[in-house]
Write a structure and sequence with these properties.
This protein has 706 residues and is an all-alpha fold. The protein has helices at residues 2-5, 9-115, 119-133, 141-199, 210-217, 256-267, 271-289, 300-323, 330-352, 358-377, 383-414, 425-434, 440-444, 456-475, 482-510, 516-531, 533-544, 558-585, 603-620, 626-657, 666-684, 701-705, and strands spanning 421-422, 449-450. Residues 13-83 form a coiled coil.
Length: 706
């Protein structure tokens, strides 16, 4: 910087040049000092170069030879390298395939199981595949596809198993009738067996309870574990001969679809969903089963099919209850049974009320008893059914009363109301066998002879006994005590006597154109029927084994019934006589202004007195026993005669005192006196025996005084 800043460039350059020359001289001196060594070195180097060239040529030649010799080795090594690489790849592939093949095999097995509808094994295979095999090969794409498909497959298995369950439920619904029919046949067999055993006490050691019989007679339900390979739904059962043993009701059903579906849903963690669905569907089916057809009351088969379906439904539910854990429970069954019981009883009340045929009502009762016994054998309470049967008994009694009303009407309408003629001993014994009648006097009489009563007496008595038998039939198998049966029969018989028979007798007595002879015969007939009531009491006692002295025993009201009918007939006699008298009196034509009386009593009065004489003669000559004569010809005839005389006296007095008769002559009064004398003469003549003194003439005393 000082050189540039000053003006000393030239001087500096001179100094520098001088410095360079000094260095060059030193270098030259040094070179001169070492030059010989340098030359020697160059000479040695030239020698080395020649040797190096030779060595190079040798190395080059050796290399060429080595290269030529190593080409084959290199090729072999390359081949070995490729083989080792392939071997390693093959080994790795085998290892991976060893892991993948079981996965593919399991997946193939899964599809095969689903195709053959082996849903529960398929679900187990799916779980094994998901948790054991797929995690080992999860990085492969096909495995990822499988993993993605697993939820869909599980849902598909779920849906398919549910479809099988639906098919099972549908089949059960269709076959409930057959299942119930078989169960009721089985119960009938048990009841027949019980009857045989009860009739043969000596073999009572072999008797089983109903529940034991049900358990022993049922063939074992085949093993329907969840691993079962086949679904079969309802088995077809061919019709069997009557002599062959009826198969157990549950042997007709394969329950494996229910068990498999239950296990599948349990494994899938959806057991509650399955239980809810099953119960909901069965409730719906129960409502359908409990809905009776509108024409059920028309035939017994309608009721039988209705009962078969209900029994079939509860047989299935009872089996499900005892073979699954929790699918249905006792509370659920009891709830369904309560609903079924109420609906069944309501349906029976409604439809049985339409039934007017007592034989159909009786058959229905037997069917209801079998229905109740069948379900009782499966542990269901049926007391309400037997209570309802007592209601049907009242209806049965009403239908019997209607039927017997027709029977009685037919008997009374066809009767000739004449004493029964007997021509020989056989006919006599036949009638005495039909009706409890004993009369020593009649037995002593020679044939031909006559019973005092007409044909309707033995016929009515026989029909009353037939009615009692019909009532007894209904009481069978109702688990009633002898006292209850006796009471039921007596009450129904009382209704028959006091209402049905009484109305029929009253209708006969009150009908138009009934003759006095017929009325008198009715009085005789009812007297004999009244006496037969004690034999009806004995008849009921014999068939029920309940003594009439027992407390609360109902008494028969037949005596009252026949007394009322007899009194009605007597009143009808009195009324008819008075009406006849009125008819004659309508012919009376008095000329109250006549100057001279006639020579004799008025024609109408003569005819009237003649009619009364002939009428009371009929009373006097009635056939029959002595006591019948005394009661009929005596009391009834006397009362009728006195009533007729009083009515005649009153009617004549009214003719004389009526307001239209404002004046009368002595001649008219003498004519009227002749008529009164004719009446008094009739009273004095004793048209009916038994009057004391002038008792009958007192009927005309007021008229005579006026």
């Amino acid at each position: 910087r000082s050189v540039y800043d000053g003006e000393e460039h030239g001087r500096f350059m001179e100094k520098l040049e001088a410095r360079i020359r000094n260095h060059d001289r030193e270098i030259e001196k040094m070179c001169n000092f070492h030059y010989q060594g340098f030359v020697d070195s160059i000479t040695e180097l030239l020698k080395v170069r020649g040797e190096a060239q030779k060595l190079k040529n040798q190395v080059t030649d050796t290399n060429r030879k080595l290269q030529n010799e190593g080409k084959e080795l290199i090729l072999a090594m390359e081949e070995l390298k490729q083989c080792r690489l392939q071997q390693r790849n093959i080994s790795a592939t085998v290892d991976k395939l060893t892991l993948c093949l079981p996965v593919l095999e399991m997946y193939s097995k899964l599809r095969e199981q689903m195709k053959s509808k082996r849903h529960y094994p398929a679900l187990k295979t799916l779980e094994h595949l998901e948790h054991t095999f797929l995690p080992q090969v999860s990085h492969y794409r096909f495995c990822k596809v499988m993993v993605d498909n697993i939820p869909r497959l599980r849902e598909e298995i779920k849906e398919l198993s549910m479809s099988d369950l639906k098919d099972f439920l549908e089949s059960i619904r269709k076959h409930s009738d057959k299942i119930g029919e078989t169960a009721m046949k089985q119960a009938q067999q048990q009841r027949n067996l019980d009857n045989i055993v009860s009739q043969q006490p000596r073999i009572s050691g072999g008797k089983k309870s109903k529940k034991e019989f049900s358990a022993s007679s049922e063939l074992e339900v085949k093993n329907t574990s969840p691993m079962s390979e086949q679904d079969s739904g309802i088995l077809d059962v061919e019709d069997e001969d009557e002599e062959e043993e009826v198969p157990g009701a549950q042997d007709l059903v394969d329950f494996s679809p229910v068990y498999r579906c239950l296990h599948i849903y349990s494994v899938l963690g959806a057991r509650e969903t399955f239980e809810s669905y099953y119960r909901k569907q069965r409730r719906k089916q129960a409502r359908l089963v409990l809905q009776p057809p509108s024409n059920m009351h028309e035939t017994l088969d309608g009721y039988r099919k209705y009962f078969n379906q209900i029994v079939g439904f509860f047989v299935v539910e009872d089996h499900i209850l005892h073979t699954t854990q929790g699918l249905v429970n006792r509370a659920y069954i009891d709830e369904l049974w309560e609903m079924a019981l109420s609906k069944t009883i309501a349906a029976l009340r409604t439809h049985s009320s339409y039934c007017s045929d007592p034989s159909l009502v009786l058959d229905l009762k037997n069917l209801i008893v079998l229905f109740a016994d069948t379900l009782q054998g499966y542990g269901f309470p049926v007391n309400q059914l037997f209570d309802m049967l007592l209601e049907i008994q009242e209806q049965y009694s009403e239908t019997l009363l209607k039927k017997w009303a027709g029977v009685f009407r037919s008997i009374l309408d066809s009767d000739n109301y004449s004493p029964i003629p007997v021509s020989n001993e056989d006919v006599y014994k036949k009638i005495v066998g039909q009706f409890p009648f004993q009369d020593a006097e009649l037995e002593k009489q020679p044939f031909p002879k006559k019973f005092p009563f007409s044909e309707f007496v033995p016929k009515v008595y026989s029909q009353i006994k037939e009615f009692i038998y019909a009532c007894l039939k209904f009481s069978e198998d109702l688990h009633l005590s002898s006292t209850e049966v006796d009471d039921m029969i007596r009450k129904s018989t009382n209704l028959l006597l006091t209402r049905t028979l009484s109305n029929c007798l009253q209708n006969v007595i009150k009908r138009k154109n009934v003759g006095l002879t017929e009325l008198v015969q009715i009085i005789i007939n009812t007297t004999h029927l009244e006496k037969s009531c004690k034999f009806l009491e004995e008849f009921i006692t014999n068939i029920t084994n309940v003594l009439p002295e027992t407390v609360h025993t109902t008494k028969l009201y037949g005596t009252t019934t026949f007394k009322d009918a007899r009194h009605a007939a007597e009143e009808e006699i009195y009324t008819n006589l008075n009406q006849k008298i009125d008819q004659f009196l309508q012919l009376a034509d008095y000329d109250w202004m006549a100057l001279e009386p006639g020579s004799r009593a008025s024609d109408y009065l003569v005819d009237l007195i003649g009619f009364l004489r002939s009428t009371f003669a009929v009373f006097t000559h009635l056939p029959g026993e002595v006591d019948v004569h005394s009661t009929m010809s005596g009391k009834v005839a006397q009362t009728a005669c006195m009533s007729a005389c009083k009515h005649l006296s009153t009617s004549l007095l009214q003719l004389l005192l009526e307001a239209e008769v404002r004046q009368l002559t002595l001649g008219a009064l003498h004519q009227f006196n002749l008529d009164v004398e004719e009446c008094e003469q009739f009273a004095r003549s004793g048209p009916v025996p038994g009057f004391q003194g002038d008792t009958l003439q007192l009927a005309f005393i007021d008229l005579r005084q006026v």
